[in-house]
Amino acid sequence: MMNQAPGSPEATVVTPALLREWRHKTSPRQTALVVGGAAAAPGAVILAGTAALRAGAGTLQLATAARHASAAGLSVPEAMVVALPETDDGAVSRTGDETLASYLDGARVLVIGPGLTDVDETGALLERLLPRVHEDARVVLDAYALGALSHDPALAKPVQDRLVLTPNTTEAAYLLGCDEDDLPDTPVAAQRIAERYRAVVTLMSCTAAPDGALWVDGSGHIGLATSGSGDVLAGLVGGFLARAGSLTQATCWAAHVHAVAGQRLIPGRGRVGLLARELLDQIPIVIAELSG
């Protein structure tokens, strides 16, 4: 355990040694379905999907706006790509659940949110889609999916206790219904979100579970703020879940690998010049070092 300031929750420090104790030995690796990529943000679903593969997903399915489906398939030739219907404004339509129906039985992990736009369409899509998710599947919500969840917490009920949320600080404030300036300290905020939505939460250096358990990453978390970094993190969580680890273990692995991958880039790129896509090549190196 780590020392905490008075009134702070007690936390376990995530270290390489702890992660090695949690090492997954599973076969076969499972299928991850990543849903996102509206007309205005096609790259997000590619970042998330590639991160899922780098973390160990056995099969990747990318579901994205129809206009970008072919380009996504060329960008990630390892993936099967599903073309989703769009609204007139280029958002992924709420009717996408019908297109996805035939893929849900095979997917054991769903990552929903990277590159989605229009919180109303996203909320309606979640309302239709989440009750149809396979009973053994785990779900990761990110970006606009978190915004939709903050508007209607009941959306999470079909997948409660098999759900991971990956908010940044702005999204964390939405989930708690407060201004970002009023957000509690990170450990407290993470625990409150986890309890409210009955989900595992990764927020900056903290991972929290609904039962109050808390882990703090000991890597010297750098808080990557570059565009697309959150999409990579969501995909990493999905990829580690596809290796059949527990929600908390997979999330701690993902948060640690994400942070260390960013640290490796800073000497050559600096924080200002770091690009989210550069994290992808670092992921298997960090995982190999941790697994050695």
From TrEMBL:
The enzyme's E.C. designation: 4.2.1.136
The Swiss-Prot or TrEMBL record annotates one GO molecular function as:
ADP-dependent NAD(P)H-hydrate dehydratase activity
Residue positions annotated to bind AMP are 230
Residues that bind (6S)-NADPHX: 44, 115, 231
What this chain does, per the record? Catalyzes the dehydration of the S-form of NAD(P)HX at the expense of ADP, which is converted to AMP. Together with NAD(P)HX epimerase, which catalyzes the epimerization of the S- and R-forms, the enzyme allows the repair of both epimers of NAD(P)HX, a damaged form of NAD(P)H that is a result of enzymatic or heat-dependent hydration.
Family, similarity comment: Belongs to the NnrD/CARKD family.
Could you identify this protein by its name? ADP-dependent (S)-NAD(P)H-hydrate dehydratase
